[in-house]
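*** Protein under study ***
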Amino acid sequence: MTDWSRLHHAYGTAEDVPGLLDAVGPDAQDPGWNILWSRLCHQGTVYSASYAALPALTEMARQWSAVDRRMPLYLAGSIVASTDQPYGDEDPQVTYASQISDLAQLTEEALKDQGLTNDPTNYIDLLGTLLSFQGVELWGEQLDGLNDEEYEVPCPTCGTENFIVFGEYGFFSTTDSMYMKPPTSARQVPLRPRAPEALEGLAQRLHSRTLADGQPDIARRLTYVFGSAQCAECDAVFSVEEAIVAQWG
Protein backbone atom coordinates (compact mmCIF):
# COMPACT_ATOMS: atom_id res chain seq x y z
CA MET A 1 0.00 0.00 0.00
CA THR A 2 1.20 3.50 -0.83
CA ASP A 3 1.81 5.69 2.19
CA TRP A 4 0.71 8.98 0.63
CA SER A 5 1.59 10.91 3.79
CA ARG A 6 5.25 10.30 2.96
CA LEU A 7 4.87 11.62 -0.59
CA HIS A 8 4.57 15.17 -1.89
CA HIS A 9 2.97 17.07 -4.74
CA ALA A 10 3.20 20.72 -5.81
CA TYR A 11 1.47 22.03 -2.69
CA GLY A 12 2.83 19.76 0.01
CA THR A 13 1.85 16.40 1.42
CA ALA A 14 0.04 14.07 -0.96
CA GLU A 15 -2.52 12.71 1.51
CA ASP A 16 -5.34 14.26 -0.53
CA VAL A 17 -4.39 12.52 -3.79
CA PRO A 18 -6.24 9.19 -3.25
CA GLY A 19 -9.50 11.03 -2.59
CA LEU A 20 -9.02 13.21 -5.65
CA LEU A 21 -8.32 10.18 -7.82
CA ASP A 22 -11.38 8.37 -6.50
CA ALA A 23 -13.65 11.37 -7.06
CA VAL A 24 -12.68 12.38 -10.59
CA GLY A 25 -14.81 11.22 -13.51
CA PRO A 26 -14.21 10.68 -17.24
CA ASP A 27 -15.64 14.05 -18.28
CA ALA A 28 -12.75 16.20 -19.50
CA GLN A 29 -14.53 19.22 -17.98
CA ASP A 30 -14.55 17.67 -14.51
CA PRO A 31 -12.73 20.26 -12.33
CA GLY A 32 -11.04 17.37 -10.55
CA TRP A 33 -8.69 17.00 -13.51
CA ASN A 34 -7.41 20.55 -13.14
CA ILE A 35 -6.85 19.93 -9.44
CA LEU A 36 -4.95 16.69 -10.08
CA TRP A 37 -2.92 18.24 -12.88
CA SER A 38 -1.91 21.22 -10.74
CA ARG A 39 -0.74 18.90 -7.97
CA LEU A 40 0.90 16.12 -9.96
CA CYS A 41 2.29 17.89 -13.03
CA HIS A 42 2.38 21.54 -12.09
CA GLN A 43 3.72 23.50 -15.09
CA GLY A 44 5.45 20.31 -16.19
CA THR A 45 7.14 19.61 -12.83
CA VAL A 46 6.62 16.17 -11.28
CA TYR A 47 6.90 15.00 -7.68
CA SER A 48 7.06 11.75 -5.72
CA ALA A 49 3.26 11.57 -5.70
CA SER A 50 3.14 12.00 -9.48
CA TYR A 51 4.69 8.62 -10.17
CA ALA A 52 2.77 6.97 -7.35
CA ALA A 53 -0.45 8.03 -9.11
CA LEU A 54 0.41 6.09 -12.28
CA PRO A 55 -1.16 2.78 -11.17
CA ALA A 56 -4.47 4.51 -10.39
CA LEU A 57 -4.42 6.41 -13.69
CA THR A 58 -3.69 3.15 -15.50
CA GLU A 59 -6.64 1.45 -13.83
CA MET A 60 -8.95 4.34 -14.75
CA ALA A 61 -7.89 4.14 -18.39
CA ARG A 62 -8.35 0.35 -18.38
CA GLN A 63 -11.87 0.55 -16.97
CA TRP A 64 -13.13 3.43 -19.13
CA SER A 65 -14.01 3.41 -22.82
CA ALA A 66 -11.58 4.70 -25.43
CA VAL A 67 -13.39 8.05 -25.56
CA ASP A 68 -13.53 8.41 -21.77
CA ARG A 69 -9.94 7.39 -21.02
CA ARG A 70 -8.30 10.41 -22.64
CA MET A 71 -7.79 12.43 -19.45
CA PRO A 72 -5.99 9.74 -17.40
CA LEU A 73 -3.87 8.94 -20.48
CA TYR A 74 -2.92 12.59 -21.02
CA LEU A 75 -2.05 13.19 -17.38
CA ALA A 76 -0.05 9.96 -17.12
CA GLY A 77 1.73 10.78 -20.39
CA SER A 78 2.77 14.21 -19.18
CA ILE A 79 4.03 12.76 -15.90
CA VAL A 80 6.08 10.11 -17.68
CA ALA A 81 7.50 12.56 -20.23
CA SER A 82 8.53 15.21 -17.72
CA THR A 83 12.23 15.76 -17.18
CA ASP A 84 11.60 18.41 -14.52
CA GLN A 85 11.78 16.41 -11.29
CA PRO A 86 13.72 18.57 -8.81
CA TYR A 87 12.91 16.31 -5.86
CA GLY A 88 14.50 13.08 -7.09
CA ASP A 89 15.75 11.19 -10.11
CA GLU A 90 13.30 8.30 -10.34
CA ASP A 91 12.94 6.77 -13.80
CA PRO A 92 9.28 5.81 -14.23
CA GLN A 93 10.16 3.74 -17.30
CA VAL A 94 11.93 1.40 -14.86
CA THR A 95 9.87 1.72 -11.67
CA TYR A 96 6.50 1.62 -13.42
CA ALA A 97 7.42 -0.33 -16.55
CA SER A 98 4.36 -2.58 -16.31
CA GLN A 99 1.90 0.30 -15.98
CA ILE A 100 3.56 2.25 -18.79
CA SER A 101 3.36 -0.77 -21.07
CA ASP A 102 -0.36 -1.04 -20.29
CA LEU A 103 -0.84 2.70 -20.83
CA ALA A 104 0.83 2.47 -24.23
CA GLN A 105 -1.50 -0.35 -25.25
CA LEU A 106 -4.56 1.55 -24.01
CA THR A 107 -3.44 4.57 -26.01
CA GLU A 108 -3.02 2.40 -29.12
CA GLU A 109 -6.61 1.23 -28.65
CA ALA A 110 -7.80 4.84 -28.39
CA LEU A 111 -5.91 5.72 -31.59
CA LYS A 112 -8.00 3.11 -33.40
CA ASP A 113 -11.30 4.63 -32.24
CA GLN A 114 -12.65 6.69 -35.14
CA GLY A 115 -15.05 8.47 -32.82
CA LEU A 116 -11.93 10.07 -31.34
CA THR A 117 -9.48 10.29 -34.18
CA ASN A 118 -11.88 11.82 -36.72
CA ASP A 119 -10.88 14.95 -34.81
CA PRO A 120 -7.21 15.61 -35.75
CA THR A 121 -6.65 17.40 -32.43
CA ASN A 122 -7.47 14.24 -30.51
CA TYR A 123 -5.32 12.18 -32.85
CA ILE A 124 -2.25 14.39 -32.35
CA ASP A 125 -2.75 14.51 -28.57
CA LEU A 126 -3.03 10.72 -28.39
CA LEU A 127 -0.05 10.18 -30.69
CA GLY A 128 2.06 12.51 -28.54
CA THR A 129 0.91 10.65 -25.44
CA LEU A 130 1.94 7.34 -27.02
CA LEU A 131 5.40 8.76 -27.73
CA SER A 132 5.70 9.69 -24.05
CA PHE A 133 4.97 6.12 -23.00
CA GLN A 134 7.48 4.89 -25.59
CA GLY A 135 10.20 7.00 -24.02
CA VAL A 136 10.30 9.71 -26.73
CA GLU A 137 10.15 12.43 -24.11
CA LEU A 138 10.65 15.63 -26.10
CA TRP A 139 8.27 14.83 -28.92
CA GLY A 140 5.77 13.36 -26.51
CA GLU A 141 5.47 16.87 -25.08
CA GLN A 142 6.09 18.96 -28.22
CA LEU A 143 4.08 17.11 -30.86
CA ASP A 144 1.08 19.29 -29.97
CA GLY A 145 2.74 22.05 -32.00
CA LEU A 146 1.10 20.22 -34.91
CA ASN A 147 -2.25 21.27 -33.46
CA ASP A 148 -1.11 24.87 -33.05
CA GLU A 149 0.27 24.80 -36.61
CA GLU A 150 3.38 26.68 -35.48
CA TYR A 151 6.57 26.43 -33.45
CA GLU A 152 8.37 29.46 -32.06
CA VAL A 153 12.13 28.89 -32.10
CA PRO A 154 15.23 31.09 -32.11
CA CYS A 155 17.38 31.17 -35.21
CA PRO A 156 20.52 29.16 -34.35
CA THR A 157 22.65 31.76 -36.15
CA CYS A 158 21.36 35.17 -35.01
CA GLY A 159 19.06 34.21 -32.13
CA THR A 160 16.02 36.01 -33.52
CA GLU A 161 12.72 34.35 -32.63
CA ASN A 162 11.07 32.86 -35.69
CA PHE A 163 7.54 31.57 -35.99
CA ILE A 164 7.55 28.42 -38.10
CA VAL A 165 4.04 28.39 -39.54
CA PHE A 166 2.43 25.45 -41.35
CA GLY A 167 -1.31 25.22 -41.87
CA GLU A 168 -4.28 27.53 -42.27
CA TYR A 169 -2.18 30.70 -42.64
CA GLY A 170 0.41 29.26 -44.97
CA PHE A 171 3.84 27.63 -44.77
CA PHE A 172 6.54 30.14 -43.89
CA SER A 173 8.89 31.56 -41.27
CA THR A 174 8.35 35.05 -39.89
CA THR A 175 9.37 37.24 -36.97
CA ASP A 176 5.85 38.68 -36.70
CA SER A 177 3.90 37.15 -33.81
CA MET A 178 0.68 38.59 -35.28
CA TYR A 179 1.13 37.00 -38.69
CA MET A 180 -2.43 35.67 -38.53
CA LYS A 181 -3.88 39.22 -38.60
CA PRO A 182 -3.05 40.75 -41.98
CA PRO A 183 -2.07 43.11 -43.38
CA THR A 184 1.53 42.78 -42.24
CA SER A 185 4.76 44.13 -43.66
CA ALA A 186 6.89 41.44 -41.97
CA ARG A 187 8.73 38.99 -44.19
CA GLN A 188 7.22 35.57 -44.72
CA VAL A 189 9.87 33.20 -46.07
CA PRO A 190 8.57 29.93 -47.55
CA LEU A 191 9.47 26.78 -45.63
CA ARG A 192 11.38 23.92 -47.22
CA PRO A 193 9.57 20.64 -46.49
CA ARG A 194 11.45 17.37 -46.41
CA ALA A 195 10.50 14.95 -49.15
CA PRO A 196 8.65 12.00 -47.60
CA GLU A 197 11.12 9.52 -49.10
CA ALA A 198 13.98 11.41 -47.43
CA LEU A 199 12.53 11.18 -43.91
CA GLU A 200 14.42 8.98 -41.47
CA GLY A 201 14.08 7.59 -37.97
CA LEU A 202 11.27 9.05 -35.88
CA ALA A 203 10.21 11.41 -38.68
CA GLN A 204 9.75 8.51 -41.09
CA ARG A 205 7.94 6.44 -38.47
CA LEU A 206 5.50 9.23 -37.65
CA HIS A 207 4.90 10.08 -41.30
CA SER A 208 4.20 6.45 -42.23
CA ARG A 209 1.94 5.98 -39.23
CA THR A 210 -0.16 9.08 -39.86
CA LEU A 211 -0.69 8.05 -43.47
CA ALA A 212 -1.64 4.52 -42.43
CA ASP A 213 -4.06 5.97 -39.87
CA GLY A 214 -5.80 8.06 -42.52
CA GLN A 215 -4.34 11.40 -41.44
CA PRO A 216 -2.76 12.79 -44.65
CA ASP A 217 -2.96 16.43 -43.53
CA ILE A 218 -0.96 15.64 -40.39
CA ALA A 219 1.52 13.66 -42.48
CA ARG A 220 1.98 16.73 -44.67
CA ARG A 221 2.58 18.97 -41.66
CA LEU A 222 5.28 16.59 -40.49
CA THR A 223 7.27 17.15 -43.68
CA TYR A 224 7.55 20.83 -42.66
CA VAL A 225 8.35 20.12 -39.01
CA PHE A 226 11.15 17.80 -40.12
CA GLY A 227 12.17 20.10 -42.97
CA SER A 228 14.12 23.37 -43.09
CA ALA A 229 13.34 27.04 -42.53
CA GLN A 230 15.07 30.26 -43.50
CA CYS A 231 15.44 32.86 -40.77
CA ALA A 232 13.23 35.83 -41.61
CA GLU A 233 15.85 38.12 -40.05
CA CYS A 234 19.30 36.93 -41.16
CA ASP A 235 18.40 34.45 -43.95
CA ALA A 236 20.29 31.55 -42.35
CA VAL A 237 18.78 28.18 -43.26
CA PHE A 238 18.28 25.76 -40.38
CA SER A 239 16.64 22.46 -39.48
CA VAL A 240 13.27 23.02 -37.83
CA GLU A 241 13.59 19.75 -35.91
CA GLU A 242 17.03 20.68 -34.56
CA ALA A 243 15.76 24.10 -33.49
CA ILE A 244 12.85 22.50 -31.62
CA VAL A 245 15.18 20.03 -29.90
CA ALA A 246 17.58 22.85 -28.95
CA GLN A 247 14.71 24.90 -27.54
CA TRP A 248 13.00 22.19 -25.48
CA GLY A 249 15.45 19.29 -25.31
